[in-house]
Design goal:
mainly beta; 2 domains; 3-stranded antiparallel beta sheet; 14 strands
Length: 184
């Protein structure tokens, strides 16, 4: 008499995995998965092409640790410029006080990793702020303001005495067996 064989069905991330008299297999698909994190940019996982031997999941971290969001720093929703520094631990000093009619003055101190921008209150615009960042060797504008003609005003919170850009996110591979480390 034939013995009954139990068949189990287990839900997998990409397909159903069925085990029984017909064997067991996993159907690989190429896809992208996203791990949401509490703050910052989500981690993205991408599978290799379906059917490739050794189908792997690769992940990439967005290098956002050196970015400063002016909305967050100033509290002004209209100042939606995002600044990205070229190296770790630069400090942005934004202050009202350019009274000589020149709209914006920029002082870049590479030795101390400090970028100081002095603007003329209610005269200098978001566009001029972005031009000052772009002209510096320290940083770049990651996303431009949707309100470029709006003026910088101390009364609107456009005074950031010191804001550290921090350290970038990076991924490294090391160890035996190989381990992937995510640094933030």
């Amino acid at each position: 008499m034939k013995q009954k064989q139990e068949i189990k069905t287990i839900a997998g991330p990409s397909a159903l995995v069925r085990a029984g008299s017909f064997g067991m297999s996993v159907l690989n698909v190429d896809a992208t998965y996203e791990w949401p994190i509490a703050s910052g940019t989500n981690i993205t996982l991408t599978s290799d092409a379906a059917g490739v031997a050794g189908n792997l999941l690769d992940f990439q971290a967005s290098d956002d640790g050196r970015s400063l969001d002016m909305v967050v720093l100033t509290g002004d929703a209209n100042f939606d410029t995002v600044v990205r520094f070229n190296a770790d631990n630069w400090t942005l000093i934004l202050v009202s006080g350019s009274g000589g009619g020149e709209a914006i003055n920029v002082y870049e101190d590479a030795a101390n990793k400090t970028l100081t921008i002095m603007y003329e209150d209610a005269v200098s615009t978001h566009l001029l702020f972005e031009a000052a960042i772009t002209a510096s060797t320290a940083g770049a504008v990651l996303s431009v303001s949707s309100n470029p003609a709006n003026t910088l005003q101390a009364a609107l919170g456009h005074v950031v005495y010191t804001s550290d850009c921090g350290v970038a996110t990076w991924v490294e591979e090391s160890g035996a067996p190989s381990l992937t480390h995510l640094h933030k």
